[in-house]
Amino acid sequence: AQSVAQPEDQVNVAEGNPLTVKCTYSVSGNPYLFWYVQYPNRGLQFLLKYITGDNLVKGSYGFEAEFNKSQTSFHLKKPSALVSDSALYFCAVRVSGYSTLTFGKGTMLLVSP
Amino acid sequence: ETGVTQTPRHLVMGMTNKKSLKCEQHLGHNAMYWYKQSAKKPLELMFVYSLEERVENNSVPSRFSPECPNSSHLFLHLHTLQPEDSALYLCASSQEAARAGDTQYFGPGTRLTVL
After folding, report:
1. Who among B58, B96, B101 is closest to A51 (CB)?
2. A1-47 pLDDT, tens per residue?
């Protein structure tokens, strides 16, 4: 079985500071990892994904994530947070075409001015 | 989000009503999905369609009935729902259902309230 853990329900950061939203996964096989963001009353918006290759993946709006196979982690990062980054962030994993995309429970990011 | 549209955006229905949710994707994808998002719970996959054929049905109650007339349109027919079915229903699409690395693109969702 595959699973995703987002250990923090909420992350608070001041505008201009770096932010990290944590994600760890558990799978049998090679993972395909995704990050999505959800603004209030909106659907999920794709940010970035790791398929293979370079462990550092760059995505939309200045976000990036680092795949760490030994720690089974895929933390989302941004060097300088904006108030407009405040939203709900989801990490998701899939192993193969025969498995479904499994989501974490989400982490609320609050960026204060 | 404009690649996947959903209507209506909000729906209030009684337990004896019959209603339908509609999803349309403008991305040329072959796979479409229905998810349920409830408060404090991870997203739950309900149904997966690949080229109009249902390939996944995650033990969803029969009061939810999907329909996929073509690869661009997906419906979720609702009847005799329960209050616990109140949630945000999200539609998504991807190029192929069986390709694990394909990104799923989501619509804005339908906020359903069952009274």
Report:
1. B101
2. 889 999 999 999 999 999 999 999 999 888 999 999 999 888 999 99
Q: What is the DSSP string of chain A?
A: --EEE---SEEEEETTS-EEE--EEE-SS--EEEEEEE-TT--EEEEEEE-SS-SEEE-GGG-EEEEETTTTEEEEEESS--GGG-EEEEEEEE-STTSPPEE---EEEEEE-
By DSSP bridging, strand B53-57 and strand A32-38 are unpaired
- CB contacts of B4 in chain A (<8 Å) are 43
Q: What is the identity of the amino acid at B6?
A: Q
Residue B2 in contact with partner chain A when CB distance is under 8 A: no
User: Which residue, among A38, A57, A101, A107, would best test binding to B if mutated, counting the most B CBs under 10 Å from its CB?
Assistant: A101
Two structure tokens written together for B26 = 């403008």
Across the interface, whether the CB atoms of B100 and A49 are under 8 A apart is answered: no
| B contacts of A87 (beta carbons < 8 Å) | none
Low-confidence ranges of chain B (pLDDT < 50): none
